[in-house]
Amino acid sequence: MTAAEIIGLSVTLLVMLIGLIGSLFPVLPGPPLILVAAIIHRLVFGEASISNLVLIILIWLTVVALVFDFLASIFGTRKFGATWRGMIGAVIGGVAGLFFGLPGIIIGPFLGAMLFELLGDKEFKEAVHAGLGATVGLLLGIVGKFAIGVGMIIIFATNVIMRS
């Protein structure tokens, strides 16, 4: 491995770690950022980068992560009895929560789902239950995206090192 390839791999892994952190916070698109870093590395370093098969696997894992995140949110809200109002409230609360850091990211979907369910004439207890579902769905999505992101980084780094 040349010095340029080592530096390129290091910078790419740093960007991928930022993407991994993005999996924990909805502000950054975690797995898509990891994929973009891998694609740029491939474009810059060609044959000294990942193989076509690994690139396809990373694209597939990115899609899986996005679908999993979406389905986890739906599962959480639906499993805990939320209606479409609660789902919309969870999204609005999640966006509003971004402005309040980590506590807002967690509490926002809860409050949004709960408030919108209350506006839809649900009882307080049912609305709280829907809020909990939104939070559980959010956390499931975060765990899934993070795990897939770790796998993507390991696959990328292993393949680059093996090919050099």
Describe the structure.
The protein is mainly α. Helix content is 85%, strand content 0%. It is built from six helices and no strands. It has helices at residues 3-24, 30-45, 52-79, 84-97, 101-119, 124-163. α2 (30-45) runs antiparallel to α3 (52-79) and α4 runs antiparallel to α5 (101-119). It is elongated, with a radius of gyration of 19 Å. The termini are close together.
List keywords for this structure.
mainly alpha; elongated
What is this structure, in a nutshell?
With 164 residues, this protein is mainly α.
Structural topology:
Elements: H1 3-24, H2 30-45, H3 52-79, H4 84-97, H5 101-119, H6 124-163
Helix pairs in contact: 1-2, 1-6, 2-3, 2-6, 3-6, 4-5, 5-6
DSSP, total strands: 0
Gross morphology is elongated
Question: Mean of residue pLDDT?
Answer: 90
What proportion of the residues is helical, as a percent range? Answer: over 70%
Q: Largest sheet, if any?
A: none
The separation of the N and C termini measures 6 Å
Name the beta content range: under 5%
Radius of gyration: 19 Å
User: Order of helices and strands, N to C?
Assistant: HHHHHH
